[in-house]
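Table 4 source record.
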Amino acid sequence: MLHSERPIKRGNIDAALEAGGCAACRRPAALRRFRNADPKLVAIPLAATEPFSGAVARPPNMIDIVSATRLPEAEFWANSALGQSLRRLSFDGRLRPRVSFENRRGLPDVFNSALTAADANDMLVFVHDDVWLEDFFLVNRISEGLRAYDVIGLAGNRRLPKHHVSWNYVDTNLTWDDLANLSGIIAHGLQPFGNIDCMGSVPADCELLDGVFLAANRHTLLAKSVQFDPRFDFHFYDIDFCRTARQQGLRLGTWPISITHQSDGAFGDAHWRKLYEVYAQKWGDEVAALRG
């Protein structure tokens, strides 16, 4: 069953884990009260010792964490990097997971559904399910970043290379751009707190951003008619989105947020090659020769 059209309440996380036979989420009652708080009604200040008990229609700084996974719900919460990270961050009621489980749709379809949902929060994070969210001041970081930029990411390119095929590769041979043109700090590894890759100083204005983690103001995107192109189901969706945003006058930039990404990305297969040609033709770029 797919759940991308509705936000996930914290009680549902517990139920999914219990149904899946996972005991990892058992916590003292003093901690469970944070996890079980309804994020639509309760905003928990990070410095508070007691949860806020009053009900409000729309707490400030609420953020939807939008993702898609091929995993069933219980397995996602128990085993995936993002699911475990969100459980760890569940003390903060301002974060609301919005995940498509057992997903077979392209990421643009999932992301656009969240973007246009009637109950969506104004701040949205589009993130892969193989990401460890390590920054427990995540809401603060995103709020700060979206006051400086319309769209933020964790790594990006300050320019638009002529024959680029991603934010960092400048040609179809997957040649890295000069680090002087790049910005970002991301760790990589299967476990949290992986090896850190420093691509360049952060924050920085960018033309292209890595799609592993993108955050944006929903109303700004809708006002400028900026969405994800469903033709790019996984490859090229991020840089296409960035170019659309820049075309509409939005400001893009990197922001310091700590994550570890389990993957280095996938490039060069037949599907990727096909979408590269679609991407280049859409933007009027010269289609570079592909080897093989």
